[in-house]
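Hey, I was hoping to borrow your eyes for a little while. No rush at all, and the record is pasted right below.
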Amino acid sequence: MTDELSLVFSALADPTRRAILERLAHGEATVNQLAEPFAMTQQAISKHLKVLERARLISRARSAQARPCALEAVRLDPAADWIARHRRVWADRHDRLEQHLATLREGATP
């Protein structure tokens, strides 16, 4: 899987990674801070962070001994655009189906 959109959707498929992104939406955090709410090892959290970093949804800086993580929210834009585009297609199809069903109902009334 090499295309950017697939990397983003794959990263978003996991609830732990989505929770990490939600936490980072409130500001930078270290791995220890990100691991606190989860019942998993820091190593497991680090693996989730690597997936998010590979999808470029987060970045890591270096500050003394810490490597705080930050959300790269702009990287979510292509995924949001893809969803919006497909939502419009399906909404149009549902609207046409609803109109067709209404027409059928009108023709069926005595």
Q: What stands out?
A: The chain has a mean pLDDT of 92.
